[in-house]
Amino acid sequence: MQQVRLETAYGHILLSCRTTVDDGLMILDRAAREAAQHGLTHQLRSIEGIQRTTAGETRHPRHGDQGAAK
Description:
Blueprint: H1 2-14, H2 21-37, H3 41-59
């Protein structure tokens, strides 16, 4: 469980920077697989919530992000 928590936190941090979003999503996917494999439903729901939030931000850029360099 500790490894899933650490990977979740690390992946979440990586999502905060455009240049590391892909890495963060990859780490969250790995953490989600581990959580599901070990029956860690609470952690899995948390990871899925983070992923949904990230997907929403990708579709709806925050004010001030339009026109920013990629």
